[in-house]
Design goal:
Blueprint (H helix, E strand, L loop, with lengths): L5 H13 L9 H11 L6 E6 L5 H14 L5 E6 L2 H15 L6 E6 L2 E5 L5 E8 L7 E2 L7 E2 L3 E5 L4 H4 L4 H15 L10 E6 L7 H9 L2 E3 L12 H13 L3 H9 L16 E4 L8 E7 L11 E8 L5 E8 L3 H14 L4 E5 L2 H17 L4 E5 L6 H6 L2 H5 L3 E5 L2 H11 L12 H7 L18 H5 L21
Parallel strand pairs: 1-9, 1-10, 2-5, 2-8, 8-9, 11-17, 12-15, 14-17, 15-16
Antiparallel strand pairs: 3-4, 4-5, 6-7, 12-13, 13-14
Helix pairs in contact: 1-2, 3-4, 10-11
Length: 480
Amino acid sequence: MAKYSKATIRFFVWRKLNLPSHENATPKFHYDIIEHYVQTPRYGFGLLQIFRGAAKTQLSMEYALYCICEDIEKYVLFVGSTQDLSNEIVNSAADLATDIDGITVTRNIDGTLELLNIKGKHAYLVSKSTGSKLRGISKSGAGSQRQRPTAIMLDDIVSDDIFLGASSLKVHRAVSWLTGALFPTLDPSSGGKVFGSGTPIKAGDPYLTLADEFGCVKIPLTDSIWPDRFSPEFIEAKKEQYKKLGQMRSWSREYDLVLTDDGSRLFDMSKIKYIDEMDIPDNLTWFMTVDGAFSEKTGADYSAITCMGLSENGLWYVYPVAGIWKPSETARQIIKYATQFHIIDIGMEGGSSFIAINEHLQEIMLDQQQYFNLIELKHGGKSKISRVSALEPIVEARRFVIIDNGDASEMLVDQMEHTDNMTIASEHDDVLDATAYLVAMDLYYDANSNHISSREELEGKSKVKLPYELRTDDDDEYGY
């Protein structure tokens, strides 16, 4: 169980005693958010990327209110994407503050909340928007002397309607405002901190620029993150809605916290075609590639199988399969789909997984008297992104067709959408990696290709070798 500081526990006790009870039980990640805020060092940044709908704005507002009520901060500047939204948040804080014993709200005008805190001192929570003009506020009873903020709370400082299609110049101006106008307003004698949370909009947006430079904690949506509000069934249904509307990029951005802009994405997904299983054409020559993994633990890498039917005109009909299996089960899955699609040539990633799976395959082939051409594929020292990039010409030529068979096809699409020119950013990459190994295969079209049912037929094929003779083409074009 995670340990939280006394400062974090004090906040949640204060919230329980002073603020209205929340509809849902407080999820653990809310404690993680506050712990990140309280551990932010003097003159430091405490930034988070959090999925849409996580109640991050409410929590950030409550923490800002807590800081000024408990005399932790004298003046918190709350910054949102628009002035109206920021004013709304501060007005909500004012409504809450009026019901807290010992707190006197003395003013709530134009986005400024002034209150008398528990120590009899004036404290301020002020709202501003990204790009607005900034100046200090007058201290009560202090004449013309102006108060600088002792902390800044950033809350979704960029919005979809403003920055999603913004030019690079507009984004640059917003970043310049942060460094040239906002941060210099901090009171230099207070050890001013910058807290904040946000959901990514686009690469290079102002908040992501800060996160990249100063670091941040990411909290994406998962089945277990907040089951009271986001059940696995809800997440699955919502994701399916995004998929049907062709908005998986938005899903990735808002809930997975992964950006795949057109300029950096490796694959142009608009050039990929999707078909149902019932629409698989006849007269395809099928091949299989396998990326094996051993662990059966939750969250472990998947064993991935990609079956690909090659058409006469060079189209790839891709049928992915994935599971967390033992080597013996992986071998059974290979036999199952090799039989289903009449596959002769099976390529497997070399190494320990090949040795373990191949041992079981040999036993099954001898037992069932069904033989396949088993090919050990080697990556030749090439990086994974280099191997995966070999698929890009197939996609660009509109020759890549994904057969929609459920979860595995979704995994392949997800992994392709999360791949840019530098990295594969999805949680897993097994299905995509198995598919990329197809490029290393000796692909050919044979209208009369069929499943080999005997050892003699296998030996009679000029393109195929005995199952015990492993092809290791170290010098092929792609370096596998």
